[in-house]
Amino acid sequence: MASVQLVIVLDAAIVNVALPTIKTALGFSEGSLQWVVNAYTLVFGGFLLLGGRLADRLGRRAVFMAGMTLFTVASFLGGMSQSSSWLVAARGLQGLGAAIVAPATLSIITTTFREGRERNRAMGVFGAVAGSGGAIGVLLGGLLTQYAGWQWVLFVNVPIGAAVVVLAPRLLAESKSGESGGFDIAGAVTVTAGLIALVYGFVNAAQDGWSDPVTLLSFGLSAALLATFLVIEVRSRFPLVPLGVFRRRNLTGANVVGLLVGASLFAMFFFISLYLQQVLGYSALKTGLSYLPLSAGIIVSAGMASKLVTRLGVTPVIVPGLVLTAIGLILFARIQPDGSYVGDVLAPSVIVAFGLGFSFVPLVIAATAGTTGKDAGLASGLINTSQQVGGALGLAVLSTLATTRTKSSLSVLGHAPGPADMAAAQVDGFRLAFAVGAGFALIGAVLALVLLRVPREDAIAAAAQQGG
User: Fold this and answer.
1) What pLDDT, in 10s, does the model give residues 307-324?
2) How far apart are CA 24 and CA 35, in angstroms?
3) Is the dihedral of CA 93, 97, 100, 103 positive or negative?
4) Domain boundaries, the chain
5) Between the CA of residue 134 and those of 7, 97, 349, 373, 376, what are the distances in Å?
6) CATH class of the domain defined by 1-172
7) Over the stretch 422-449, which tens digit does the pLDDT of each residue have?
8) Strand, helix or coil at 241?
9) For the CA atoms of 468, 120, 102, 84, what is the dihedral angle to 10 degrees?
10) 259 close to 367: Cβ distance less than 8 angstroms
11) Which fold has domain 243-468?
């Protein structure tokens, strides 16, 4: 289970370091490059809740093995990509496999280990692997991209996935929840398609303008699909997301804040990778090493956050965390075309790391506080979904803004842009993206202050439930 969680977490981080190489190899434009990340996160977020329901009702081990098989095959197909559309399709399949595997993994741990010391030890291992996955991913991504080729950031999943599928029947017992009922496949498909259409609208707006017919059609189709999703959820006997659950103030507030945190985080990793490699000229390996202080800071601060929540409550931890995240992003918004890692990247990385660590843990605790039984599973799934969807939408918005600003900066030159002009224009776009990302974090801090009212005893109970 721990190795599977490592692969899922690692896969989100490992691709970021390879993005500039993938862009050149497969001919992605600056605006369309985000699909390498968003194809995975959108499908992952859109089908995560359905994956949990499938595991509970059809058998956790069987669904786990099916999802892992799909993830492994998709990783192999992605490594074999000959075009940008091929890779994006493979990343979408990876996201679907991850959405099936992730909830089954946690359910198997919960049903395999007895509540108390045994389960807490298992959750400790699981959490440590999840926390270190980002650091391992960026370092391994740099090594593989530089010495084996970008394809291996995807191929690396194949032997691990194959071993897991072979060993699963020998190591894991089958279990089901015993619940009966249907599956809201229509809801999962419409919400995912609606979000993809929305992101495509932003991407096309950056390339062809906001008034372009394709842009307008994409936004219109997105609105229609998302409205259809809401109708399906209201009428379905077994909805993917029972809308009544949002009457809970803390759950709703945590998910709104989770959207904003995801929007800041995903875009930050995306633009840092481009800045280090395309502007500062770093190799893939050097870029991976440059992420280590950020990843280590998140691991350390997340461990501190669970203890602080039990002493102080949710709001006194998450609000300063989001403010720190905003401060770090504001500092990132001051990067220079002729900058350096120590002068422009290191300090903001450490500040953002502690901000995110102090944000992630209280968010999950706030989302699950006061819930029991299957409601706790639904609440955990919703907060994970919110962060994934927020990350995809935030990256779409910020990438569109950055690309538009870069084009605007180049258009006023009055002469053919040289390498220095291109670097300055790119950095101008990155700075705008970081600044707007800081705005997302600050809005999240204000909303957390206003919306989250988690009693201290509920926070302690939720922290214990999460293994904190």
Assistant:
1) 888 788 888 889 999 999
2) 15
3) negative
4) 1-172, 185-239, 243-468
5) 10, 19, 14, 30, 26
6) mainly alpha
7) 999 999 999 999 999 999 999 999 999 9
8) coil
9) 60
10) no
11) Growth Hormone; Chain: A; (1.20.1250)
